[in-house]
Design brief:
It is a single chain. The protein is mainly alpha-helical. The protein has one domain. It is built from seven helices and two strands. The chain has a two-stranded antiparallel ribbon. A hairpin with a 2-residue loop joins β1 and β2. The radius of gyration is 21 Å and the shape is globular.
Amino acid sequence: MLANLAALTVPAKALAVIEASNDVFAVPLRFRPPLSLIAASISKGGVCVAGDALHPMTPDLGQGACAALEDSVVLARCLGKAVLGEGGIGTGTDEDERRRVDAGLREYASARRRRWRSVQLIATAYVVGFMQQSNNAVVSFVRDRVLSGFLARTLLNMSDYDCGSSEMLD
């Protein structure tokens, strides 16, 4: 692995850190087609996906960890409303509580909650990455002369996402 990294002209200091490390894992970035989320099942029974499992994306937006935090806020609110909304924990049978948790996970997975936000994040990260990394003269011209202002506004709006308040779940 060090030879491969050296061939890619990785800085010597970085190579020294990697060489001194006991456990180094190289994992390639994965791409999930954004439209696959429209029909995908992201919740089944007592299990749902969040974070990178829901919206893997390249680091071009700098929003991966932020989106995972958004997931956790929305998931906690959906589960809290579902579990506490019908008399609280311990007021029903185990089956009742399982049903409430399943309902909270379905609410989280609904298009209204995380699905469209995830589609937007993945698609934008892909487009921005493609535009930034392209050496094509036409793409570079469009990026530098036409889209730079639009992309700047879009990226600022992307990072200004509001998870909403707990009242939004009503």
